[in-house]
Predict the structure.
Amino acid sequence: MSNVSKTVTLNMGPQHPSTHGVLRVVLELDGETVVKAEPVLGYLHTGIEKTMEDKLYYKAIPCTDRMDYLAPMSNNLGFCLAVEKLMEIDIPEKVQWVRVCLAELTRINSHLVWLGTHALDLGAMSMLLYAFRDRESIMDMYEAVGGQRMMTTYIRIGGLAQDIPKDFDKGIRKVIKTIKAGLVDYETLLTNNEIFINRTKGVGVLSAEEAINLSLSGPLLRGSGVNQDLRKANPYSSYEKFDFEVPLGKNGDAYDRYLIRIEEIKQSMRIMEQALDGMPEGPYRAHVPGIVLPPKEDILYKMESMIFHFKIITEGFKTPVGAVYQAIESGKGEIGFFISADGTNKPHRVRVRPPSFINLAALPKMCEGNMFADVVCAIGSIDIVLGEVDR
Amino acid sequence: MNEIVRAIGNVFLKMPKGFVVTLRHFFKKPVTIEYPKKKKPMAPRYKGRHYLERYDDGTERCVCCGLCAAACPSDCIYMEPEENEKGERFAKVYEINQIRCIYCGFCEEACPEEAIFLGHEYEFSSPDLNSFIMTKDKMLVAHPRKENPFKKLIRKARKVYGTVDK
Ligand code: SF4
Ligand code: SF4
């Protein structure tokens, strides 16, 4: 009897600085070893899916911003693409390119916050400061484009909220320059930092098979060496016209995920530069009377536009009966929107496939049998946003 | 063995470079600003506090059509219409609950009269909850408006020659 070790149950969170929000992990410890790790969710549940079902289609867009608040444009894009698929709207080319540009900007935003907080969890304080310093330029760009720093609601059904500002090109290029300069700092600080390597290499290992079985997506899946990126596999918003590479990892550990995210930032900048160089001219909204809001300039001078404007704002548009699923590759993985439409002007059911939530399911696999101190690193390497996990 | 060589290389050759990065920031200008004393200019499209616009002669633009309230995703606009002696509609009561408001700007987009717009002001915190119910008199812009004379000139020119730029 005396040799039987007793396990200790430890609550990590919900108010723990490195659980990135209000995640609670119930850990069963045998000394320093984790026997069982169980994430407990629901502390940030806001019922966003249900709220969206109660709103006209265009009014549901602000709800999507508030799920993954580090990647508002990706979420907007996902939802709008789903509705556009349902309504079969053709999007002008310029809008598609602007959307690509903004989605990539959002990916960098998401990765920078991840980089800062993940490094902070592992003890590299200055990384957080540098990452947030450079993220500020992205926030300024959001503000210039959509008028808000976080909840942009800029991408709308059938187009964009407003035309891009005149200095869009200049602004984005400035952001790219800032991030490029910042990346040199990050890589010098972390990539060859022996402390960082020791804390991340071989931590939270997932084999390719495990990653697929857990239906992971994003850098977590690619870290294990599975080549799956929706931008390549199932292009949307004319991603097929851009030339970029999908970085892959070998070992499937936290260090590989770090390398992948850094490489993805670089690839995103490449895509943005291509988008800026070849930005086509055209309208910023599709011309689909009765479904897409007419441009504001028309409303003031054209009676017909005015009537459609009134109709869309007050009663929305009627959809065909059916269901659509549209997934895009956000910074965290595959974010998908399933809309079941019953022919009225509100969705019957909206279901979001949140990458954070599904990736979080890999946490027990990553932690069990490993050291207690690596739990923080494993959580960090998943890159979760609790707003999206709980919705 | 290889691992050890790599680790030693990292510690003695590569990591000092990292220290240089942090050290270099010692001599750089701070990126932060002393907030209440200095303020960052907001972007032209920034969505802050609401304002209700007037015509140049001082009458309110808002005709109480209710489109902004219909477009509002958080249902925070309340209004009651009335007609004046000339038979023109105007809003007797027009309230925005700023605690519910998410500053999405849908009201501004929906308004066919360009009556409501979101200004650049963002410092309106208060310990009094009731003060967040913005009534009409709090939102209407001052008349005659205090504005940059140069901007006024541009506005007049635009009126005569039509909108030059959008
Ligand atoms: S602010 Fe504009 S949209 Fe709202 S009631 Fe007045 S005129 Fe109509
Ligand atoms: S900004 Fe949005 S939430 Fe606020 S009053 Fe206008 S429409 Fe409503």
Q: What stands out?
A: Strands of chain B lie at 50-52, 77-83, 89-97, 116-118, 133-134. DSSP finds five helices and five strands in chain B. The first helix of chain B runs from residue 2 to 24.
